[in-house]
Design a protein that fits this description.
Elements (H helix, E strand, L loop, with lengths): L2 H13 L3 H7 L17 H10 L4 H5 L30 H14 L8
């Protein structure tokens, strides 16, 4: 679905507006939204239309918001684990010290599966 079609659908459903009314309520020229099929709109224009329709620019562009995954153990990628998960020899002592410090403060986490 094109951006113009998406704006048209959202405006009609949420406000009962056509594209001309949407443009006017966003403070844009009457036919400006029609031009978006051939020319990319500015962020300022997108923001104005999104504000007029009481939605975000991402919603206007059709970008779905991803819900965060809850109660899932983090992976090395989530933690930004460098070195492909293999600790270089010169940093092993540092990581050991960090682990000892953590488990000293959180003994309940030892041997937890």
């Amino acid at each position: 679905m094109s951006l113009v079609e998406r704006v048209k659908n959202i405006a009609s459903k949420r406000k009962g507006w056509n594209l001309k009314e949407t443009a006017q309520n966003a403070g844009l020229s009457v036919n400006s939204i029609y031009k978006w099929d051939k020319q990319s709109p500015s962020l300022k224009s997108l923001s104005a239309v999104a504000d007029a329709l009481d939605i975000t620019v991402d919603e206007l562009r059709g970008i779905e918001k991803k819900e965060p995954v809850i109660n899932q153990d983090p992976t090395f990628a989530d933690l930004g684990m460098p070195y492909g998960g293999k600790i270089p020899e010169d940093l092993k002592d540092t990581y050991v010290d960090l682990a000892k410090s953590y488990f000293k403060r959180h003994p309940e986490m030892l041997n937890k599966e």
